[in-house]
Amino acid sequence: MQPKSQAGRWLALLLALAGPAAAQDWPGHPIQLVNPYPAGSTTDLLARALAPGLAARLGQPVVVVNRDGAAGSVGIAAVARAAPDGYTLSFSATTPLIVNPLMRSDTGYRPEALEGIRQTYDHAFAIVVAPGSPLRSLAELIAAARARGSLQYGHLGTGSIQHLAGASLAQAAGVELEPVVYRGDGPVVLDVTAGRIDFGITVAAFAVGQPVRAIAIIANDRSPGFPEVPTLRESGFDVAVSSYGGLLAPAGLPEPILARLEAACAGAVTDEAYAAMARRTLQPANHTLGRAAFAERMRRDASDKAALLRRIGLLQ
Question: How far is CA 90 from CA 49, 70, 157, 211, in A?
């Protein structure tokens, strides 16, 4: 047995034995809420809206820490390495947890390294173009891609939902769409506006009030922020992806702490601070799920995402 592996087993055993006592005393100091996306992103805004409600119910400060990089893997890996003691949590989309380890062997974690506590959001996405772009609809975008041989679009990294959506659309339409990687929706919008790329795929809420024009929504239903913009399915392409997520913890957290966190999160999402941010970020009515339903969705999604990655040639 390797020393590191042996030490990990001893830690797990000690935590299990100390579980009831540790849970009774928890939390005894501030809790770190790791967001694997940049400051100002929609996930960051939601995390910061949720933190005060969690803190009020748990009796300790909840501090949001941004650990972005590698399409979310940097932050997820940090939480996966943390002790399952309730003091290091993640507020994240499930994409970096589920998709990144399928595509890369160097993430340092597997999907089972974290467990969901509560789903608190479900983002739709939008295909956006510059205000002066001649592309007025998805049909015109596809026609332009055929005529020119290829169009460039901005997304947030290989395996990101934006990338998967773009690759799925390209395959469904039989055209070439060249992905260009950015570190956030903000830089995507800037380059779309400046004409450096043909279009971008961003969180729909981020496009509200930005100098871009949405021509298609990537979701099962139209977005409340863009009621006049059709979905990809309405436009004739069977593509619908979303980025859902919420509160997650390192696997192995004692059940009493999990239960307290789930109850605190269930209450915090009803606070006006979070409800207002949910409206601002265009969350659908059913954007929250309890622990069991969240876990089941993640299990189904892991299988669905693996199939999607194979279908678009990103996984053998």
Answer: 14, 16, 20, 32
d(CA 98, CA 106): 14
Residues in the chain: 316
> Which one-letter amino acid corresponds to residue 175?
V
Q: What angle in degrees, to the nearest 10, is found between the helix axes of 161-173 and 291-311?
A: 40
Q: Of 203, 152, 210, which Cα lies nearest the Cα of 176?
A: 152
Sequence-distant (≥ 6) Cβ neighbours of residue 178 within 8 angstroms: 150, 151, 152, 153
Query: Would 234 be classed as within a structural domain?
Result: no
pTM for the model: 0.85
In order of 46, 133, 180, 252, the CA distances from 277 in angstroms are: 6, 31, 29, 31
- CATH number of the domain that residue 208 is part of: 3.40.190.10
Q: Residue 30 has which token pair? A: 């501030």
What is the residue range of 40's domain? Answer: 3-122+243-311
- Separation CA 100–CA 109 (nearest Å): 9
Residue range 20-56, pLDDT digits in tens: 556 789 999 999 999 999 898 889 999 999 999 999 9
pLDDT tens readout for residues 75-127: 999 999 999 999 999 999 999 999 999 998 899 999 999 999 999 999 999 99
Q: Two tokens at 161? A: 């939902």
